[in-house]
Amino acid sequence: MTEQVDHRVAAPGRSNLDPAVLAGAESFARTWATAVIGSSYVPMTRAEVAEHLQALTEVLVHALHASPFRTAPGYEIGARLVEAHFTGTDTLGRTVQLLGDDLLGELGIQPDELMRSRLAALQGALAAGYARALRERTLAEQEAIRAAVLDARDQAEAALRASEARFRAMFTEAAIGIGIADIEGRILDVNQSLQDMLGFSVEEMRQYNIRDLMHPEDGGSVWRLYDQLTAGECDHYRAEKRFRRADGEQVWTHLTLSLVRDDHGDPQYQVAMIEDVTDRHLLQNRLRYQALHDPLTGLPNRALFLERLGRVFNNRARHRAGLCYLDLDGFKVINDSLGHDIGDQLLVEVGRRLDHSVSGEGKLVARMGGDEFVILVEGSKDTQDIVDVADRVLRELESPIRIGGHELTVSASIGIVERALSGTTAADLMRDADITLYWAKADGKSRWALYNPERNAKEVARFTLSATMPAALERDEFYVDYQPLVRLEDSTVVGVEALVRWQHPEFGRLAPDRFIELAEETGLIVPLGRWVLRRACEQARRWLEEFGDSAPFVSVNLAVRQSRDPELVRDVKRILDECALPPHHLQLELTESAIMGTADEPLEALRALSEMGVRIAIDDFGTGYSNLAYLKHLPVHELKIAGSFMEGLRAADEEDAVDVQIVSTLVQLAHALQLGVTAEGVETPAQAKRLHRIGCDTGQGWFFAKPMKPADIDELLRR
To answer: Which end of the chain has the least Cβ crowding within 10 Å, N or C?
Structure first.
């Protein structure tokens, strides 16, 4: 039968190819033609073969650069090779090897990880398309052969010789191996393809029974199906099976075994059709290895690690397991300063050391990506087992690593989780190990940290607060308390400090130390601070309307991020205007470290606010390392001395001379700069008297009043 084959495969957009790439494709096509032209009978001239393969090469080039990337062109190329009769036993192997070894080089493409990955995927797709097309062609031949066998039985005596001749021709010339046996399994005949495949002559094969060809690792299901077939319970079955060759090597095959019945329907013969799929099987194994191993270090990758971890939890035979989640400290600095090549070599050496130091049954070292590695220990006895592994890894990484003339010292942070498998999942184990790794980094790096459920609960609560804070501001869950600022000379309330609180629906009343830091980390401190400022100014306006000149000013804390907000001056002016509050009734407090480290732009904002009439105060003064010469140039009106200096003045019977001297010096300094002084943390009458004697202008603390609601401030002002 003559098959008409379209030998031309048009490459999409050939004119768009770079001339250099096109030349490389032509060169590779010639090499490809030379490699496969002797492996198959193809009804084309050498020039036609080269032209056909060049078109396929251009399809590969477009597929390599396509976005999005697809493997379908590789599948189509495999099918077209079979259509063009490139079906020799070595054709696929030579093609796949040539693509992997020469294609990228001929095209002048840098063999980076992306291109290697794409090429491997196209190799696999090509093999799959080739195998599918070859199988379909083989199955068609099988059906024709089976029909011929059945026809031979049913044909009349006159047509028997012609039918036998046709069968013998197909039997002899078929590209797949064919064997015939009686119902007892004794081999009667085999064709040349099967002899070549297994390395036995037909005489040698006739000495065997089919069961003699059983491989030790054959699945039980294969032979159960065989027993059903010989019993006449089924007419055919298919399976993948290994055979041993005469030279001791093994060959992977796709086996189709069919039953031939006599005129009465009783089983009479077995016909085996055997296709050699060793190359495809080896390629699949290679592709699976590449898919499950890190191409840089050769270690198992994330996919293989998760597969192994899943098997541990599905089996649970070992009852316990532990993880060490490892991240290199400072790897980004090495990568950025010395280059990615040095960084890659460092990762290879680290992977080698980890694999060397962590060995034995039930242990797996995998690279999760980047500079992260994970160690799985199956069947751990207790936490100490995993701690010992972590200590061994840290010791292994202590010695310097020499790479390209550089002596590099590397350390690692390790998160450790060890627990019983019951009551937990693989996802829980991974999550907790990841969390613990970041605890180790936060605790100082170059160490391990052990998972702690209590610490995790606190972190979860902290995250919950952070996540719910934006909605809490919209739901008006925040409110403001006020603490009086009292003039020490006559105990008059001259101001109040606005202190934000959070009435959380789940955690109850939260003080600022529970959420202010979170607000600064998330950036919510700016809208929260703006809300507190507006609420405080609105309240100050109400006091001004009720108490007139005796109304207190409000002091509002300003976070560092707020002070750097370019909209700060506009926000303050707009709020003051909308509340009709004179600027001198507002005081903004910044910490000493924030205001001393203020850059030019934020400092200009503070000057603008000061010129507007807003008071500026330095909070917690004395706790930092201030440049006192710089202090006189700042737009500041008030110093609030930190409460830590007040402890030595608290006792009724004696005072700490050092604390007295420090406070006296700070007061004298402030007054020399014409600044007011407020003492924080005043808790006893003795403190208040001593501070007044020293010269402090204002006091704040529980001796005078705790933070209170606006209505309580009203009562205090009326008294």
So the answer is: N
